[in-house]
C-alpha cells in the first residue's frame, strides 16, 4: 500500500518535490495549493486547490482523506499555513516534515536595511519621494498606500485585487526565474533608487539581490516571520528518504 502524502505547496520546492515523487510506486502524493494564482503551472501529481478551513478543517481533511504524512513545503512567509499544519498534525497524530529553504545571507557589498514587516518597509522608505521597486506579493501592496509620495514599480505574478493601492504605482506582470543582467537593466532603465524585498532564499529570485549589489542600490529587506515547523528537512532528497522510511498508517 502506498503512503498517502499531502504536500503543502505554492513554491519551487513543492513543485520540485512533486516532480521527484511522481511515479514513485511507494508514494501516493497529493499537492495542495492555496489558489492565489489563477493559472498555476501544471503539476505531475494530483492537485487540490483552496484553503482547508483553519486547523479544524485541515484536521478533518487529514482524517477523511486518510493522509499518512504531511510535507509542508510552503513559502518561508506563509507562516499561518505552517502553524495550522503543526497544530492539525499534532491533533491527528500525522507526521509532519517541513522543507524550508535557507535565507539569503548578506554579502559585504549589500546595502540591506532589515525591517520587521511591510508596514515598517513603507516607513523605511523615508519622507523624500523615491523610485521604489517592490518585489512582493500582491496582497502586500496596500501597506505602501501609506507612503504615497513615492513612485512604485511592482512586479507581480497577477494583478492585485485590492482597492487600497499607492497612487503612483506601475504594475509589471512576470513570473521568475529572472536573470541578473535583465534585472540590472530593469533597475537602471526604471531609475530605481531602492528595492523592497522579502528574504525568500533560493535561486529563482536571487538575481535582483545581485543586481542591487552590483548597482550599489539599497534594499529594504523584510525579515522572515517565525514559521512553526515539523521535522526539518534539509532538502528534497532527505525528505524523500524520510518518506520512504515511513509505513502507511494502519499497516
Ligand atoms: P498563509 O498566510 O500562511 O496562509 C493563509 C491561508 O491560506 C491558510 O490559513 C490556508 O487557508 C490557505 N493556504 C495557504 N497555503 C495553502 C496551501 N498550500 N494549500 C491550501 N491552503 C493554503 O499563506 P500565504 O502567505 O497567503 O501564501 C499562500 C500560498 O502562496 C502558499 O501556498 C505559499 O506557499 C505561496 N507563496 C507565498 C508567498 C509569500 O510571500 N507569502 C510567496 C510565494 C508563494 P485555510 O486556513 O482555509 O486552510
**Which superfamily, in CATH terms, is the homologous superfamily of the largest domain?**
NAD(P)-binding Rossmann-like Domain
Q: Indicate the overall shape.
A: elongated
Largest sheet geometry: 6 strands, parallel
- What small molecules are bound in this structure? NADP nicotinamide-adenine-dinucleotide phosphate
CATH class of the largest domain: Alpha Beta
Widest sheet, order of strands: 3-2-1-4-5-12
Summing up helix and strand content along with how strands pair, one would put the structural category as: alpha/beta
Number of helices: 7
CATH architecture title of the largest domain? 3-Layer(aba) Sandwich
Count of folded domains:
2
What is the mean pLDDT? Answer: 95
Rounded to the nearest angstrom, the radius of gyration is: 20 Å
What does it look like?
The strands form 2 sheets. The protein has a 6-stranded parallel beta sheet with strand order 3-2-1-4-5-12, with helices on both faces. A 6-stranded parallel beta sheet has the order 6-11-10-7-8-9. The model has no long low-confidence stretch (mean pLDDT 95). The chain has 251 residues and is an alpha/beta fold. It starts with a strand and ends in a 7-residue tail after the last helix. It is built from 7 helices and 12 strands. The chain has 2 domains: 3-102 and 226-246, Rossmann fold; 111-222, NAD(P)-binding Rossmann-like Domain (Rossmann fold, 3-Layer(aba) Sandwich). 28% of the residues lie in helices and 23% in strands. Helix 2 packs across helix 3 and helix 5 (180-189) packs across helix 6 (207-215). NADP nicotinamide-adenine-dinucleotide phosphate is lined by residues 8-11, 32-34, 36, 51-54, 57-58, 74-75, 77-81, 84, 137, 198.
Amino acid at each position: 500500500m502506498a503512503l498517502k502524502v499531502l504536500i503543502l505547496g505554492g513554491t519551487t520546492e513543492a513543485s520540485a518535490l512533486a516532480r521527484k515523487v511522481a511515479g514513485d510506486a511507494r508514494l501516493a502524493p497529493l499537492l495542495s495549493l492555496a489558489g492565489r494564482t489563477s493559472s498555476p503551472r501544471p503539476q505531475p501529481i494530483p492537485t487540490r486547490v483552496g484553503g482547508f478551513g483553519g486547523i479544524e478543517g485541515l484536521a478533518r481533511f487529514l482524517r477523511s482523506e486518510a493522509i499518512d504524512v504531511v510535507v509542508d513545503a510552503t513559502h518561508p512567509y506563509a507562516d499561518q499555513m505552517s502553524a495550522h499544519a503543526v497544530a492539525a498534525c499534532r491533533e491527528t497524530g500525522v507526521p509532519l516534515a517541513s522543507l524550508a529553504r535557507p535565507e539569503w545571507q548578506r554579502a559585504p557589498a549589500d546595502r540591506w536595511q532589515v525591517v520587521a514587516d511591510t508596514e515598517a518597509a513603507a516607513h523605511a522608505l523615508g519622507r523624500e519621494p523615491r523610485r521604489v521597486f517592490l518585489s512582493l506579493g500582491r496582497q502586500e501592496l496596500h501597506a505602501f498606500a501609506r507612503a504615497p509620495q513615492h513612485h512604485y514599480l511592482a512586479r507581480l505574478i497577477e494583478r492585485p485585487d485590492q482597492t487600497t493601492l499607492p497612487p503612483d504605482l506601475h504594475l509589471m506582470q512576470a513570473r521568475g526565474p529572472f536573470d541578473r543582467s535583465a534585472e540590472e537593466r530593469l533597475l537602471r532603465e526604471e531609475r530605481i533608487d531602492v528595492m523592497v524585498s522579502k528574504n525568500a532564499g533560493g535561486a529563482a529570485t536571487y538575481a535582483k539581490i545581485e543586481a542591487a549589489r552590483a548597482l550599489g542600490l539599497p534594499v529594504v529587506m523584510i525579515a522572515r516571520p517565525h514559521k512553526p515547523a515539523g521535522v526539518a528537512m534539509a532538502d528534497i532528497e532527505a525528505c524523500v528518504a524520510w518518506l520512504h522510511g515511513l509505513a502507511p498508517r494502519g499497516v
